[in-house]
Design goal:
Length: 320
């Protein structure tokens, strides 16, 4: 006979482990090409691993409102077979704390995760090209999100009212940031805008009272009232060789972005090339302005490329 402890441990493990949802937990439609679209979920919730096949069909689409208002859902793992998360697919799942999106998803649709107030983390794969309108709006607990360099469009209000978001880095692949994309992100302190961005929609960063620095890697994008009613002391930083910058941008003062001391090649990135520069000059002495401080590897201008420079590189690794 099993002990009470063994029984309790078994019950506890059952409650903690993710659930591979059964076919009877779903309604789906046949897409006619060997794939299917999930149209409804009726399971118990918890942490759910969505299956990659249903009824012998490959799951490729999470349909409109498939998990809408599923308050029992606390976590979701979307399989790599899925290519599209449709409109409001996970909207208003107020107890959802994390979402892992499969590596084949291309589009996160309109309001895909809108109103998931408990969502703290989301893994967006390097396959997504479009983050739709209202996609993560009102995700009030979301503290950080990594936007991969596959994304080209961030829709209007995509991160509207994400009040716990503290920083955002827009990759160079993005061309358009929609209007009000980061509106009322009251916790946002800094934003890095990639060099591919050509258009920023109106009031994209409005009402961000804690925003102190916006760092642009490319030319000045077009836009109107981008920083309406943000922190009065916020500053726009730009790279010296970029164009279109005046004394102000979007109503904020502009200054040249100071590079990292560990950016040996001056490309405003601290990466493997800077490590290679350091390695190539390791323990070199006699560094000064006449030899470009030993080809840029003497980060602290001490005259010697040594462990102090290595520590600077480590501190700023993958900056910005």
């Amino acid at each position: 006979m099993r002990s009470t402890f063994t029984r309790c441990a078994a019950v506890l493990s059952f409650l903690i482990l993710p659930l591979v949802a059964q076919a009877e937990d779903y309604t789906w439609t046949n897409n006619g090409d060997g794939t299917c679209t999930i149209t409804d979920y009726t399971g118990p919730g918890g942490i759910v691993i969505i299956p990659d096949t249903l009824g012998g069909l490959t799951v490729t689409v999470i349909g409109n409102r498939a998990f809408f208002e599923c308050t029992g859902l606390t976590g979701v793992i979307i399989p790599d077979s899925v290519t599209t998360i449709n409109d409001e697919a996970f909207a208003c799942c107020e107890n959802l704390t994390f979402a892992t999106i499969g590596k084949s998803v291309i589009t996160i649709g309109y309001s895909g995760f809108h109103g998931c107030a408990s969502l703290t983390s989301v893994t967006i794969p390097n396959s997504v090209t479009t983050i739709g309108v209202w996609a993560f709006a009102f995700c009030n607990s979301l503290t950080h999100v990594t936007i991969p360099d596959s994304v080209t469009t961030i829709g209007s209000r995509a991160f509207y009212h994400c009040i716990s978001l503290t920083d955002i880095k827009i990759p160079d692949s993005v061309a358009t940031i929609g209007s009000e994309a980061f509106y009322y992100c009251t916790g946002l302190t800094s934003a890095i805008i990639g060099n591919g961005v050509t258009t920023i929609g109106s009031i994209a960063f409005a009402y961000s009272p804690n925003l102190v620095g916006v760092y642009f890697r490319g030319d000045a994008p077009g836009g109107v009232d981008i920083f309406y009613n943000v922190n009065a002391n916020a500053i726009v930083y730009y790279i010296p060789w970029t164009s279109g910058w005046g004394p102000t941008y979007g109503g904020l003062p502009t200054v040249v972005w100071p590079p990292s001391p560990a950016d040996a090649n001056g490309n405003y990135e601290v990466d493997i090339y800077d490590f290679a520069a350091l390695a190539g000059q390791w323990l070199q002495t006699g560094c000064d302005e006449y030899n470009d401080w030993c080809q840029g590897a003497d980060f602290n201008h001490s005259g010697t490329v040594d462990v102090a420079d290595l520590l600077l590189l480590a501190d700023d690794w993958l900056w910005p």
